[in-house]
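Long-time lurker, first post. I've been practising inverse folding by hand and with some scripts of my own, and I keep getting stuck on stretches where the structure tokens seem ambiguous. Below is the full token string for one chain I'm working on. Before anyone asks, I'm not after the true native sequence, just a reasonable design that respects the backbone. If someone could post their per-position residues I'd love to compare against what I wrote down in my notebook.
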């Protein structure tokens, strides 16, 4: 997306469409509204009286052929109550706008912020536009495949030229972040036959090269040499061999200890011998979303030159039933040496994360954060509205909370209590991989905790927030890419923990 800034007044903006944000209003007193009211023969006052547009969130109205304007149309976007307006209001408003024909059919558009100079709102606006208009067209044929929006350039109209550099940087950042989030969505929505562990690994390697991130791929033999018995136990049921990816980005001084990000990469989760029900099983193509967030975060960190050393670890496998598959009751030995009794082969995410968390020790990390579509139970914790997090370090969870507030990707901490740890003990092995239904999200966290080293750690369960069931302003139905904005923000504002 190309963009420019201008200080031209509304009538002089030589674009197809002008977009203005409007908080709820009950009078035509502000400058833009007055100008528009004049140019449209009083349409704004008429609208206001009709109640059809008052600036409520989600409302839009398009006014055509304003007299004395160079632009062909003006789109007003409702922001909601002024005192409740945040950066995310702009993200949402632009998400709604992105799907209006008035915009997708325009070749050029100007977005007017008036006197507002908060870089976060500019960043959110461009993110909302790019995220809202996203559609997966790759698997369509014929006319539907041609549905691309025509808009190629956005002009940001501001009142004064002072401080433009900061706003430009914010828009650049918004583009990188939206592209990262779209990459997560694209990978998540790619069907499992087009994204086997091998295909996925090759794609990661190519992206890493493009963005100057180092990438090492362990194949099944190297994984066996590493004694990743838990990962291998999951992979066994599939004819597709597993992969283990190590990404490294060095944005900080050589002596700075790295932050390690670990992402679950199950390219399809059938449940294994503990086979899932057919209803919604197709959604389990998205069970690699955690790893995609790790990948996209590290690529974005490289593009934004975040001054941190980062490592990304991505265990990648399918979880399939077959004659070669691990059976319920089998006992496997993890990389760390702890033995695990497999109660339920559908609790595979924690198994592959266990080996990846142990592998993180190799890098002497200053902190480790894992992200995974881990438990169906997350639906009953925060639903589609936020991600449960767990961890062992208050500073780290506080930083995640602050990043969540800034990005509107919500998280909330749930505890790891001894009760949950008890439930993960096996009578005959060190651990079981399933603690049953009660507090399943928390017992999964307790299981992961037994594989961490002597470092601050946080776990983010993105089951369900990775999927938008209905369609929201900047989240069309389907994969959301949740976690990318959160982690990039976290790393950008990182403080020692
Ligand atoms: N990938 C699933 C979790 C999941 C379920 C994510 C639905 C998104 C939507 C995970 O591997 C899984 O199957 N977890 C089981 C664990 C249980 C058997 C202990 C679950 O949560 O039901
Ligand atoms: Mn599973
Ligand atoms: Zn899974």
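-- Answer (accepted) --
I ran through it position by position. Result:
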């Amino acid at each position: 997306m190309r963009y420019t800034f201008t200080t031209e007044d509304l009538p002089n903006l030589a674009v197809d469409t002008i977009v203005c944000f409007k908080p709820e209003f009950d009078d035509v007193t502000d400058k833009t509204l007055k100008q528009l009211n004049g140019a449209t023969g009083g349409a704004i006052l008429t609208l206001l009286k009709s109640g059809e547009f008052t600036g409520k969130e989600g409302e839009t109205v398009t006014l055509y052929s304003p007299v004395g304007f160079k632009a062909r149309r003006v789109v007003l976007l409702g922001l909601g109550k002024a005192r409740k307006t945040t950066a995310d209001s702009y993200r949402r408003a632009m998400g709604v706008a992105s799907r209006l024909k008035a915009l997708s059919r325009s070749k050029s558009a100007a977005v007017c912020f008036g006197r507002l100079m908060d870089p976060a709102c500019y960043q959110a606006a461009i993110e909302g536009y790019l995220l809202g208009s996203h559609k997966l067209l790759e698997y369509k044929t014929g006319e539907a495949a041609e549905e691309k929006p025509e808009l190629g350039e956005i002009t940001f109209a501001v009142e004064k030229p002072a401080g433009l550099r900061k706003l430009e940087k914010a828009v650049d950042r918004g583009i990188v972040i939206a592209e990262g989030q779209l990459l997560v969505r694209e990978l998540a929505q790619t069907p499992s036959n087009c994204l086997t562990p091998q295909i996925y690994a090759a794609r990661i390697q190519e992206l890493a090269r493009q963005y100057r991130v180092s990438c090492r791929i362990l194949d099944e033999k190297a994984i066996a040499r590493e004694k990743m018995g838990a990962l291998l136990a999951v992979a066994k049921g599939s004819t597709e061999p597993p992969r283990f990816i190590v990404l490294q980005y060095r944005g900080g001084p050589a002596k700075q200890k790295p932050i390690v990000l670990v992402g679950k990469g199950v390219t399809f989760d059938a449940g294994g011998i503990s086979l899932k029900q057919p209803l919604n099983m197709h959604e389990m193509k998205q069970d690699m979303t955690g790893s995609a967030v790790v990948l996209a975060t590290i690529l974005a960190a490289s593009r934004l030159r975040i001054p941190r050393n980062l490592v990304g670890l991505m265990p990648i496998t399918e979880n399939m039933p077959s004659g070669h598959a691990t059976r319920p009751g089998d006992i496997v030995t993890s990389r760390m040496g702890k033995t695990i009794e497999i109660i339920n082969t559908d609790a595979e995410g924690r198994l592959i994360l266990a080996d990846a968390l142990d592998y993180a020790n190799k890098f002497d990390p200053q902190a480790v954060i894992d992200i995974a579509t881990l438990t169906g139970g997350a639906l009953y914790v925060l639903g589609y509205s936020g991600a449960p997090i767990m961890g062992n370090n208050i500073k780290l969870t506080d930083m995640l909370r602050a990043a969540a507030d800034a990005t509107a990707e919500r998280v909330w901490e749930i505890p790891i209590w001894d009760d949950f740890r008890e439930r993960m003990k096996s009578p005959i092995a060190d651990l079981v991989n399933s603690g049953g239904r009660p507090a399943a999200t928390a017992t999964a966290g307790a299981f992961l905790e037994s594989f961490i080293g002597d470092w601050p750690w946080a776990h983010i369960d993105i089951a369900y927030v990775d999927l938008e069931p209905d369609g929201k302003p900047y989240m069309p139905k389907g994969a959301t890419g949740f976690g990318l904005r959160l982690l990039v923000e976290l790393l950008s504002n990182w403080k020692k923990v």
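A couple of notes from the structure itself: Residues 164-189 form the longest helix (26 residues). The pocket of zinc ion (ligand 3) is lined by residues 266, 269, 287, 348-349 (CB under 6 Å). Happy to go over any region you disagree with.
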